[in-house]
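> call design_seq(struct)
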């Protein structure tokens, strides 16, 4: 096990998110990977991915390029704003330019359809090995003074006491803390955590930010730790958690 108690990722532990709108392809890929020891979850739309990644711990994502709701390139770009889950993109287009775009937005590898089962399995194992070898560089825990946020166990400790948070509150806190010192717009937060465009009216995240402040001892009237920058968005202050 590594320093955080997580066992090395192998086919017997890896949890894969497969995003594919071709149901027949999704079925045989899922069945094939399950027979090789993987746990597989399937989604058929791109606009469902961000919320799933924010609320679950995946070891790898198989991501089709052509998807309803949101294409794979845009999905990859949005996921990379808050997660470093390994991504293998899949496409029927043998176009080098598409491949370059996919890798530039953060994909780890690229597979051309039709997919060969053994070749896909080899790619998955290779990406998992490479990710595991650099896992010490991939932050699963954020620490700011008296605040500790553990993504793997969805655990928050503040001033030595565990803070109980709903999955929505934890996802929002992790997103803001992962971008400490950077203003996250309502549009970015909404797109990342809800997987759809912000309509300009929904204030649910204002309410969640207010609840987070109360849970973490930040004065809602004069917040110093999680600020609302009017007209711009939310700002997590990294050096405000030492008392």
């Amino acid at each position: 096990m590594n320093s955080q108690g997580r066992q090395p990722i192998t086919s017997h532990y890896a949890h894969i998110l497969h995003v594919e709108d071709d149901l027949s392809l999704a079925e045989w890929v899922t069945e094939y990977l399950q027979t090789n020891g993987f746990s597989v979850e399937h989604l058929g739309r791109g606009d469902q991915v961000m919320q799933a990644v924010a609320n679950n711990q995946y070891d790898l994502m198989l991501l089709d390029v052509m998807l309803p709701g949101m294409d794979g390139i845009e999905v990859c770009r949005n996921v990379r704003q808050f997660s470093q889950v390994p991504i293998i993109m899949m496409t029927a287009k043998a176009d080098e330019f598409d491949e370059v775009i996919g890798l530039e937005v953060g994909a780890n590898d690229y597979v051309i359809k039709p997919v060969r089962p053994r070749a896909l399995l080899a790619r998955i194992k290779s990406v998992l090995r490479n990710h595991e070898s650099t896992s010490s560089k991939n932050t699963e825990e954020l620490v700011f003074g008296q605040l500790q946020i553990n993504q793997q166990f969805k655990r928050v400790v503040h001033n030595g006491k565990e803070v109980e948070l709903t999955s929505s509150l934890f996802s929002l806190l992790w997103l803001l803390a992962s971008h400490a010192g950077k203003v996250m717009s309502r549009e970015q937060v909404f797109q990342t955590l809800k997987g759809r465009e912000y309509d300009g009216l929904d204030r649910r995240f204002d309410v969640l930010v207010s609840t987070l402040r109360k849970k973490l001892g930040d004065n809602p009237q004069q917040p110093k730790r999680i600020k609302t920058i009017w007209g711009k968005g939310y700002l997590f202050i990294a050096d405000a958690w030492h008392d």
